[in-house]
Design the sequence.
């Protein structure tokens, strides 16, 4: 009764082509004459920096957008997709970066959503459940059909998304940055499933900006940059270096901090204690001194008190003991505003939550704090022309890619939002800067730019606390490296003094003495 | 004072509750559909008013009560289309457009009443229909099974609404566009069409709520006949946690406290009348504080859907 | 976005316009014409308080010779006091001679506005406070008097010895009418029970209906009450078929021709005519009018459609006479 997967294999899409696709958005040419094709049984990676046009291209294949020019051809026949429903009918599925699941419904209900039931208008959830279990076995996709989606881990939710596509008989499945939210173990499981699907004759498009994953999983790779195809190569015939060059358009510069004599201590932290979200003590007495013109890197495994320390310094979390000083002035009890006035700047880890307002325009986000001070005010009035000219200067200086000053921030890429926050914070010429995970989720080009900016700020004499989980970033930028473990500083080493293994040991809680000499 | 606790009093309270609850049920079940799909329609009271007027006008001039109900449903449908056009197609702020719709219904019904009828008149509305056998059960029979057809209709609506929302593919679609319209859209569900349908269905039921007032419960029309019942109905949807049974519970609670406070006044319980009339509101708020369940709230409530914004 | 805002704004405008449509455009003014504006909390056709003033104005206009002699403008359904205040000021500044704020909730607005228009006559009620201003009249109705008469009639007619009273809020003439009614009932038979309910709303017809039904279930065979929402009570009486109704403020016989026994009617015509005459003689205000049975401002309208036994009618007439000649005092 149940058709064997082998039998269906021959009915699958053999070849999907997108020919000379052009897609424009107000102020942006997102895809410019892009051609792209996928064959049955292959994983074709779509590689490019954020904003290169990868997701836009695939959303057109899935019917979410319609191309302005160009055509979509499946097995020789042209198709026009006016909505995802058309694409689904043609055998195309998409796993979005933000999962398209209804949390208050069960897995089965999510899978059944939008499908014709065998007993319309009634639901036939039992039947759906049985088919889910069948597919589950066939593809090695472990999901509990009766669980509510809100109860599931991120990895499980992704499996539900894949299940939805398979259930709808998708031959070609588009995966948009599928690994961005997964743990390494989950990535391994996902890759196993993907290989299984390819064996069964599915075609997969794997959108990513992570080089090693592309090298690992794909058969062919197409690189997009600024909305154009730079090239398509068989993965085994290309090197990582070549791909980077294609993505970025140039070789990456290795940042090299010049030796500059650090000045006097600008940011002093003495015996700082605070309480974490769960009410237990998260910092057990932190002592650090950061000099002006110095980058101090704070290395550690995530969740050892880095976030609490940053928030405490920025004034978003109360210190329960200890003292924070900028220069000679004690700012421990200062409000956020007073800290900013004393020369503190903060690039928050949760940039969309703590650093900017999604719905506000680029310009409004630039003077989010400073709007109530000179030179932006005349008495109680805002000086909009002054604000606008300042905003234009910053946008140019920091090479922000935005259609206009009025564009809502939410329409910008992660890298550009981070640049905007940096521009705003650094334009105040701070004495001390807390940079928490400044390049997380940011593409290679923007990362490089942010690094250069941090170094320039160091030259300008700012004391910088760089909090990062990327050990390479810390090692290349920092003058000194402090290692945090369970709310305490385990050790502080000079640049180049410790090997990556020694730092790794300290991050695991081994004392500095043992790590360096043991 | 022996009649304080007699069976007759109890029967009176229950009969009164059932009658008071009827317009709330129509309006609140209708609003449940709209809100489950993600649209708050604050214009319910305005729809009720204009439909109550329309139904009354038709009944007065033709004597045909079924035609009156049909008129009310049609007025509800038109106002529902207007509300969905503004809130779904134009993606305008739902609260404001709802209030606009309310003011339109209030003013228009008052104006038309003045022009076409002029003064308070009464009609012979829907008469009680005693259901055979059930109506003969001693005690509860006459209380539960001796009402007009629109009253029965309101009570039938509750299981039907629950069945539609929980057991049908349509119900699943309505819930999904209210919880995560982007997900529904990605599965090929036409979010706008489902929201249009839900808002219009809600408005048709609001229209029937108005008609139940003017043609079955009070058999007349007067300026601002509903006296804000539509707004109470919107509150009852929150109270009921977007579940038809919960909404019914809320409508019952509000109505029974109201009928109890009237009895307390009639039999002369010594409390100030101002406190008595406050009781239904106070108790409903108190119950809301205890039972509030935000988990069930449609996550996309009050949020217009635009493709490509995640 | 801008288009959307415009559309909503437009819709709101239409709604407001429709709400404001109750005001007919003022007719062109003729020489010596008197212009009266009235602001009312409910509709002119509410079968109660607002209608009583509206009918009186119509009848005064007819007596004076129509539109050319007396121009009337009105805004009704202004339960919201700030809106009413705006309307009062508007009419005053448009040059109306007499501005009537027909609602006890409008007092503070009149107090605010009257000093700014010393040549305009303001009248408001029901209340007895002219704020000591020379251009303000206050007017009230001794509703307890008609209430007393209705009470006497009701007491004579009740068989179950239970009477139900359905009121809106325990204030103003709604309260004094019922107080008088209770005294009238007690004067005939103190053992008769008068049950009272207040709904807390002037307009909630459904709740008023429920209140009346509750009274009927509690054994009442006669109902009375005030406010525009009593149409619900009358409907409940009709449903029951054998429950009688006593009206107040306006003649409510047309709502249930078989069941309405009598209505106390507010007749403001004499007061209005007096105001106009005084104004033409140069007096703009300063006094309090009270409608009573003696000055003809209050009338008991027996419903010709109801077959009232002669002895009961005689008792009613005796009560009217007693109040008129002072032998019966009714406490408000």
Sequence:
């Amino acid at each position: 009764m149940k058709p064997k997967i082998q039998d269906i294999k021959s009915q699958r899409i053999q070849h999907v082509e997108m020919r000379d696709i052009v897609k424009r958005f107000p102020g942006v040419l997102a895809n410019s004459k892009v051609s792209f094709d996928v064959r049955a049984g292959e994983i074709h990676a779509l590689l490019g920096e954020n904003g290169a046009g990868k997701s836009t291209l695939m959303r057109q294949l899935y019917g979410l957008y319609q191309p302005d020019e160009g055509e979509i051809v499946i097995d020789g026949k042209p198709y026009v997709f006016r909505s995802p429903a058309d694409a689904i009918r043609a055998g195309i599925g998409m796993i979005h970066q933000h999962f398209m699941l209804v949390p208050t419904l069960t897995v089965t209900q999510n899978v059944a959503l939008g499908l014709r039931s065998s007993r319309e208008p009634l639901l036939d959830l039992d039947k759906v459940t049985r088919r889910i279990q069948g597919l589950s076995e066939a593809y090695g996709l472990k999901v509990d059909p009766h669980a509510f989606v809100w109860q599931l881990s991120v990895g499980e939710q992704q499996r539900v998304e894949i299940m939805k596509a398979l259930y709808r008989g998708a031959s070609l499945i588009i995966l948009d940055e599928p690994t961005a939210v997964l743990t390494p173990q989950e990535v391994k499981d996902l890759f196993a499933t993907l290989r299984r699907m390819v064996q069964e004759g599915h075609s997969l498009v794997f959108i990513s900006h992570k080089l090693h994953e592309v090298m690992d999983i794909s058969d062919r790779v197409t690189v997009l940059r600024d909305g154009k195809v730079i090239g398509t190569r068989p993965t085994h015939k290309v090197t990582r270096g070549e791909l980077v060059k294609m993505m970025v358009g140039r070789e990456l510069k290795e940042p090299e901090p010049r030796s500059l004599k650090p000045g006097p201590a600008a940011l002093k932290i003495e015996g700082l204690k605070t309480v974490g979200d769960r009410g237990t003590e998260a910092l057990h007495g932190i002592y650090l001194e950061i000099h002006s013109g110095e980058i101090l890197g704070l290395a550690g495994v995530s969740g050892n008190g880095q976030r609490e320390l940053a928030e405490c310094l920025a004034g978003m979390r109360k210190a329960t003991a200890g003292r924070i000083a900028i220069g000679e002035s004690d700012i421990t009890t200062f409000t956020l505003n007073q800290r900013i006035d004393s020369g503190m700047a903060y690039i928050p880890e949760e940039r969309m939550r703590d650093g900017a307002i999604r719905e506000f325009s680029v310009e409004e986000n630039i003077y989010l704090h400073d709007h109530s001070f000179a030179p932006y005010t005349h008495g109680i009035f805002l000086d909009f022309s002054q604000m606008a000219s300042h905003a234009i200067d910053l946008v140019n200086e920091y090479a922000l890619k935005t259609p206009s000053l009025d564009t809502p921030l939410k329409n910008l890429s992660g890298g550009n939002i981070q640049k905007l926050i940096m521009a705003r914070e650094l334009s105040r010429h701070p004495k001390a800067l807390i940079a928490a995970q400044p390049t997380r989720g940011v593409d290679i080009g923007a990362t490089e730019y942010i690094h250069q900016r941090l170094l320039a700020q160091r030259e300008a004499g700012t004391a910088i606390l760089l909090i990062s989980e990327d050990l390479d970033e810390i090692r290349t930028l920092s003058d000194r490296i402090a290692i945090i473990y369970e709310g305490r500083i385990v050790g502080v080493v000079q640049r180049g003094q410790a090997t990556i293994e020694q730092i790794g040991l300290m991050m695991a809680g081994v004392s500095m003495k043992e790590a360096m000499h043991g | 004072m022996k009649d304080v606790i007699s069976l007759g009093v109890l029967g009176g309270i229950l009969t009164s509750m059932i009658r008071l609850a009827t317009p709330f049920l129509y309006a609140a079940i209708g609003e449940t559909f709209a809100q489950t799909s993600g649209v708050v329609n604050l214009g319910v009271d305005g729809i009720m008013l204009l439909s109550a007027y329309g139904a009354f006008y038709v009944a007065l001039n033709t004597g045909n009560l079924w035609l009156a109900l049909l008129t009310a449903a049609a007025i509800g449908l038109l106002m529902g289309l207007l509300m969905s056009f503004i809130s779904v197609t134009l993606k305008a702020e739902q609260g404001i457009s709802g209030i606009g719709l309310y003011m339109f219904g209030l003013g228009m019904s008052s104006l038309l009443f003045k022009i076409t009828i002029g003064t308070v008149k009464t009609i012979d509305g829907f008469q009680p229909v005693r259901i055979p056998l059930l109506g003969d059960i001693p005690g509860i029979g006459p209380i539960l099974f001796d009402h007009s057809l629109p009253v029965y209709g309101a009570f039938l609506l509750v299981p039907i609404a629950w069945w539609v929302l929980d057991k049908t593919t349509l119900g699943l679609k309505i819930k999904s566009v209210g919880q995560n319209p982007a997900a529904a859209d990605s599965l090929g569900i036409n979010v706008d069409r489902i929201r249009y349908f839900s808002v219009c269905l809600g408005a048709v039921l609001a229209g029937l709520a108005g008609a139940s007032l003017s043609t079955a419960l009070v058999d007349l029309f007067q300026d601002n006949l509903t006296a804000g019942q539509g707004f109470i109905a919107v509150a009852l949807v929150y109270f009921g946690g977007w579940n038809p049974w919960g909404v019914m519970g809320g409508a019952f609670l509000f109505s029974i406290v109201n009928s109890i406070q009237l009895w307390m006044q009639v039999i002369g319980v010594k409390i100030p009348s101002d406190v008595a009339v406050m009781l239904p509101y106070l108790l409903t708020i108190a119950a809301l504080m205890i039972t509030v369940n935000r988990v069930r709230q449609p996550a996309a409530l009050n949020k217009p859907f635009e493709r490509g914004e995640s | 976005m801008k288009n959307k805002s415009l559309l909503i704004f437009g819709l709101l405008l239409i709604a407001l316009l429709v709400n404001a449509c109750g005001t007919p455009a003022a007719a062109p003014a003729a020489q010596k014409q008197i212009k009266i504006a009235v602001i009312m909390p409910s509709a002119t056709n509410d079968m109660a308080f607002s209608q009583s003033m509206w009918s009186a104005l119509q009848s005064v206009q007819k007596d004076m010779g129509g539109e050319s002699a007396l121009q009337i403008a009105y805004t009704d359904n202004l339960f919201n006091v700030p809106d009413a205040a705006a309307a009062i000021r508007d009419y005053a500044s448009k040059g109306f001679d007499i501005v009537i704020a027909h609602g006890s909730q409008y007092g503070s607005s009149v107090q605010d506005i009257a000093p700014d228009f010393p040549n305009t006559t303001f009248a408001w009620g029901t209340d007895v406070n002219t704020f000591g201003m020379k251009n303000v009249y206050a007017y009230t109705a001794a509703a307890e008097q008609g209430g007393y008469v209705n009470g006497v009639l009701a007491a004579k007619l009740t068989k179950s010895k239970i009477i139900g009273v359905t009121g809106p809020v325990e204030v103003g003439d709604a309260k004094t009418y019922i107080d008088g009614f209770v005294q009238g009932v007690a004067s005939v038979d103190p053992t008769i029970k008068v049950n009272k309910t207040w709904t807390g709303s002037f307009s909630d017809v459904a709740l008023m209906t429920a209140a009346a039904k509750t009274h009927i279930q509690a054994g009442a065979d006669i109902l009375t009450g005030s406010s525009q929402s009593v149409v619900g009570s009358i409907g409940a009486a009709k449903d029951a078929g054998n429950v009688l109704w006593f009206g107040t403020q306006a003649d409510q016989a047309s709502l249930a021709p078989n069941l309405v026994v009598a209505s106390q009617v507010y007749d403001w015509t004499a007061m209005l005519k007096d105001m106009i005459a005084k104004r033409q003689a140069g007096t703009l205000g300063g006094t309090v009018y009270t409608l009573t049975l003696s000055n003809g401002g209050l009338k008991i309208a027996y419903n010709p459609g109801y077959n009232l036994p002669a002895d009961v009618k005689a008792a009613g007439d005796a009560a009217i006479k007693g109040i008129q000649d002072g032998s019966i005092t009714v406490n408000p």
Q: What stands out?
A: Residues 29-142+268-291 of chain C form a domain with the Rossmann fold fold (CATH 3.40.50.2300).
